[in-house]
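User: Structure please.
Assistant: Input sequence and predicted structure:
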Amino acid sequence: MPSSENRSLPAVTVPALFTRSYLALAEEHGHARQQVLRRAGISASHIASGHELSLPEYLRLLSAVGDLLGPQVCIGVEMGWRIPPTALGPLGAAVLSCPTGREALALCRRFWRFYGIGVTLGISTDDDVCTLSFQTQPAVVPAAHRQTVLEAMVAGFARGILGLHRDASEGIVIWFDVDTPPWASSVRDRLGNVHWGMPSCCIRFPEHLLDDPLPNASALGLNDALSQCETLERLQGKHTDDIAERVRHELVWQVDGYPSFEAVAERLHMSTRTLRRRLREQGVGYMDLLNMARRRDALSLLERPVLEVAQIAQMLGYADPANFTRAFRQWTGLTPSAWRARLP
């Protein structure tokens, strides 16, 4: 991505809980934490003090643990499965206190931009099936770590769903958009009905689960946790009325494409006329933001060699691949094929 976009990225830090969990996994397989930290170039005293890791440090830790444990251990799924929803702090507490899964997902959507940095979350329902779609942002998550990050995200959500609906295991289907890995058997043992080489990375489950009462529902707990979420938002300086940013957050690619302008307005609880006016006040239009989302997702999809350029064009909503190539050249100065050829 251009340097101007990289400079706009937030300063990402990773909670110490995640660091300790990866180190514990390595220790279970016979690798002392000092060995792992030395390999990752991270100070042991920094970890001992409980400090959060920067994103570059965290990614180095992932590489070190992955190299030491080898291809038979899926570190992403192991971490996603081990770390409970409460690791998300007040958002995790709010989700667990919701009366139904539908409200829980609405909260995830609302606060995702503060907790899911580097990964987009799409939520859709069709033919009585709810689909949670995940995709990494190349400017934040390098291609070398994409699979691990997605596996951790999917495993974490799958654990959450099963924890709230213990009889739902047979109804959950998981897709990964990469080739079948060496650790496929262990992933199926953990997650159940898993398929690789699919069109997207997602979790699919019966929509009726969204409306089943949740076992830990608590109005008082929800109000308290939600208040903490909003307070944390303000303390971090991330609360914003930037309507363009809010629309960008909603423009997440899903199996059936991007949400329409009307759908985005509905999600933001305003009329199309009001949304159009507020975007115009910021000097931007819906199509401008949609094309930004297409650019973001095109860069990510081109990292997957199993997808032909024509397939990517269709997925992004271009009926004619030539129009996609023309748009991509405007974004990057290169054709999609030339961009892909430069990837490591």
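The longest strand covers residues 119-126.
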